[in-house]
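Following the same procedure, sequence and fold were stored together, as reproduced here.

>
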Amino acid sequence: MHADDACLPVNGTPIEMTNNGERSEVSAVLRDLQLIQTFKADNGLHTNTFRWDEASELLYLDVNTASERLPQPVKYTLVYRRAT
């Protein structure tokens, strides 16, 4: 399946995808009001965790990328607010 055609269930069931010629196994799960996407490939693992903060009305995206090509995992957080 090509990434543009993907319909990903949110029950943790992985699907195989090809994106830019790279094959990977992709899964998603809803856990504790968070959407967690996991991308596994031969060269590493990438995880996106989307979480909504009701008090601040901000959407956080926690990103974690690990690969044998990296000296250590890359972790960062993006913060989104509603457009006004």
